[in-house]
Amino acid sequence: MAGDLIPLPHSRGPQAPAHHHARARIRLGKRTRFDARIDVTSGGLLAIGGLVSSILLSTAVLVHVAVREGGKAKAIQR
């Protein structure tokens, strides 16, 4: 009938968060090598994105304030 409810499939309860893995290796010459590895959840990626965006926005504001007076920053006066 038109007013009947359709049952939802049974959920299996809370699932573990998805983990994301990344590795990087940088070699400089024959003797120098940098290895990096990271394991992060989706929530961690969201937090990292928020931190990076806030850093970039605050940097843009600082640069704007530093050069708003005709391209020259004011010297500290005592």
What does this structure look like?
The protein is an alpha+beta fold and 78 residues long. The chain has a domain at 19-67. Helix content is 33%, strand content 26%. It has one helix spanning 42-67, and strands spanning 19-28, 32-41. Strands 1-2 form a two-stranded antiparallel sheet. A hairpin with a 3-residue loop joins strand 1 and strand 2 (32-41). The longest helix is centred in the C-terminal third of the chain and has 26 residues, at 42-67. It is flat. The N and C termini lie far apart (83 Å). The model has no long low-confidence stretch (mean pLDDT 82). Keywords: Membrane, Transmembrane, Transmembrane helix. Residues 1-22 are annotated as: Disordered. The chain crosses the membrane at residues 45-67.
User: What composes the largest sheet?
Assistant: 2 strands, antiparallel
Got a strand count?
2
Separate helix tally: 1
General shape: flat
Gyration radius from CA atoms, angstroms? 25 Å
Poorly predicted ranges: none
Strands of the widest sheet, in order across it, are 1-2
- Provide the residue-averaged pLDDT: 82
Percent of residues in helices: 25-40%
Bin the strand percentage. 25-35%
Class by alpha and beta content: alpha+beta
Order of helices and strands: EEH
